[in-house]
Amino acid sequence: MQQLVNGHSLGSIYALLALGYTMVYGIIKLINFAHGDIYMLGAFWGYYVINQLHFNFWLALVSAMLFCALVGVVIEYLAYRPLRNSPRIAALITAIGVSFLLENGMAYMFSSNVRSFPQAMKVHQYHLGSISISNIQILILVVSIALMILLQLIVRRTKMGKAMRGVSVDPDAAQLIGINIDRTISFTFALGSAMAGAAGVMIGLYYNSIDPLMGMTPGIKAFVAAVLDGIGLILGAAIGGFVIGLLETTMQALGFSAFKDAAVYAVLIIILLIRPAGILGKKIKEKV
Amino acid sequence: MKKNLKYNLTWLAIMVVGYVVINLLEFVGVIDQFGENTMVLIGINIILATGLNLIIGFSGQFSLGHAGFMAIGAYVCALITSSISTPMGMAIGMIAGAAVSALVALIVGIPTLRLDGDYLAIATMGVAEIIRIILNNLKITNGPAGLYNIPLLATWPVVYLMVCVTTLIIVNFIHSRDGRAVMSVRENEIASESMGVNTTKWKVLAFVIGAATAAIGGALHANYIQTIAPTDFGIMESINILIIVVLGGIGSITGTFVAAAVLGLLDMILQNFGTLRMVLYSLALILLMVFKPSGLLGTWEFSVRNLFNRFTKSKQKGDA
Amino acid sequence: MTLLDIKELTKNFGGLTAVSDVTMHLNDNELVALIGPNGAGKTTLFNLLTGVIVPSEGTISMQTDNGLQVLNKMKPYKVAQTGLARTFQNIRLFKDLSVLDNVLIAMTANNKEGFFESIFRLPSFYHKEAALRKEAVDLLKIFDMQDQVDNLAKNLPYGAQRRLEIVRALATKPRILFLDEPAAGMNPEETADLTRLIRQIQKEFRITVLLIEHDMSLVMNLAQRIYVLEYGQLIAEGTPAEIQKDEKVIKAYLGGES
């Protein structure tokens, strides 16, 4: 039971990150390798504003989201937009380059040392029978779910959301009916990056330490989460995130922590072999 | 028939002359110990990247797990040469490493190569990570600490020889029935299948050959650096090899050579920049991709045959 | 002699029946056309016959040198190796490869080049390659494409791409050749050339041809027998003269009024 609680906090972080992967993939079919590093930037932003400007948690969260949204849009504009009509693998390598740049640029400017994240709020432990849960865990869970609902509303109910869905199904047709593709893609990056920024601040608070390379592993895990349920599907990414978080903490609880990553990948491979386009994904057969 | 002999002899001459020239440069002091170090690393990267290029560029299957097969080769060869530390042991180690790696690739490839595009990439990445985690937890591989005191058997001549051998195998494979079948899978799998080509078989074959060459690269790496640990073979290593392939031009073996050399030299020059090194490296990578998305050479390939043809043509023009 | 026998072939996609209870046969060295309005299930039928999709019900069997073989559930490459070759409605050439390579790839299954033979470039490799190349060029000559051997398939003009698809299919040494709208997008002159070519290869290679085509002049000129498909069902079978007079066929093509 305790693991279920821990798994959920970790899972919601993965889910938030996976959403960014899935949205970007859905709209331009790019595995945005730099997404995990946006999350790292979010954590560093939180670190900076809480320490230097004495922001409270909520202000730090919102400002990190805005900051990351801006960074996401700038990266898309400078690095990915010129490659929109190039082979997909070229865009992928560029994304890897951006990821390296963010990691090493931050390491260069702020050193690669691990630093401790300021405690923006007091930790309380609540005990419910044998389970203990901290206020931060509750916060992470509530904020993540709220953000996911918000995202779902934006995608389902707003005009921009409709445009996003249109572009992801058929960019050419979307353009023909007057959707501004560039703006829609920028908006998608902004949304996805904002989610990553929020995840960054919350993980800083939860694990209490940040460093320039912190985005790498969760980034890959979140990507796995996005693939697990069929990449490009928003609901799928959210579920995938929770599944992986739970799987990891369960393996840890069973005493196999050395193999927890292996278990994640093994599950992924098995799922892909049974359902080649993820659990919820539909395999589109090429028309002959 | 005579023509073919001429082409093959020319290639042999290029390889021998290349070796002699580099050794001469070393002898007169143009290339120092540091330069040789760079050349060995470039050579190993060429071996790793040509194998991956066969998988990605020619069969069109997106693998992100090359480091896993490299790790198998490195560990198998390191374990063997640690007990038989002679060149013979090195040869046995490389062959054994390539064989084990090929076997794993076969077992992994048959089910996973049905997946397409990014799903395959992520599955192969998962396989490589699983291999790494197993190495991290086995006793014989000495866990996270890895193996050290591996004998230095991958000297510069050995690496040069292996670059030639693996490249010849891959290039000859590409320019044969098998290679054409492999490329047809990349071009249009449905058409290929309808022309009687067993696409699964050739996809797996390309994957297995790629994995075997990765193991050779890993074996050389282990016996040159002399210490290996599971962390050497993470996703980052797979990505580094991928970068060479894409930067050179997917589907161009010549491009792989050029890219491995360019990146190797870039790395050497940037050594002096300290922590700024990786920043500049990543900037160079982004700029190269933005301005040359098809890679340095695209799909262009150096060919002795074309060189001869051009030569004879210009001569004919001169005669006329 | 019946070469290919199709019995009660049915394909359901979910609730939709694309091909329903089709029974037909192809005789040795026969030229048969399959016609029908758009969406009648003609290409689906081709895909069923070539193993690209698996039938829900029914059997497809073929007379081969090794006796009668059932083709259902065979993988497409096996079907092709049994002697069925095809072209595609939406051209599917190996675009970034040369014209010659396109043809050579179709010879893969009949090519006995060994792995080690080619890796080590043994003399036998060069012999086999030379023989293969000659065979491919001879085939291209029939279609007047011998000068384009080294061009990339994607750089060929449209008509030549369609012809290359036929050459490629022939290179698999088929007993039966399926042509999916070979004249689509061609001008009358090209269509006339094509008509001649199809008749020529049917005679020269002694193969059976089944073709889907909308160009009625070509169909009526060429076909010895015609099958008509509508809504996945066969509605008529006969010689061109019989089909032209068939009430049901006229109705299917002109709509309900007549």
From TrEMBL, chain B:
GO terms for molecular function: branched-chain amino acid transmembrane transporter activity. The chain crosses the membrane at residues 12-31, 37-56, 63-84, 90-110, 117-135, 155-174, 204-221, 241-266, 278-300. Keywords: Cell membrane, Membrane, Transmembrane, Transmembrane helix. CDD domains: TM_PBP1_LivM_like. It is a multi-pass membrane protein. The keyword Membrane applies. The keyword Chaperone does not apply. It is found in: Cell membrane. One of its GO terms (cellular component) is plasma membrane. This is Branched-chain amino acid transport system permease protein LivM. It comes from Paucilactobacillus wasatchensis.
Automatic annotation (TrEMBL), chain C:
InterPro entries: AAA+_ATPase, ABC_AA/LPS_Transport, ABC_transporter-like_ATP-bd, BCA_ABC_TP_C, P-loop_NTPase. One of its GO terms (biological process) is L-isoleucine import across plasma membrane. SUPFAM superfamilies: P-loop containing nucleoside triphosphate hydrolases (SSF52540). Keywords: ATP-binding, Nucleotide-binding, Transport. This is Branched-chain amino acid transport ATP-binding protein LivG. The lineage of its organism: Bacteria, Bacillati, Bacillota, Bacilli, Lactobacillales. It comes from Paucilactobacillus wasatchensis. GO terms for cellular component: plasma membrane. PROSITE patterns: ABC_TRANSPORTER_2. It comes from the Bacteria. Residues 4-256 form the ABC transporter domain. Gene3D superfamilies: P-loop containing nucleotide triphosphate hydrolases (3.40.50.300). GO terms for molecular function: ATP binding; ATP hydrolysis activity; L-isoleucine transmembrane transporter activity; L-phenylalanine transmembrane transporter activity; L-valine transmembrane transporter activity.
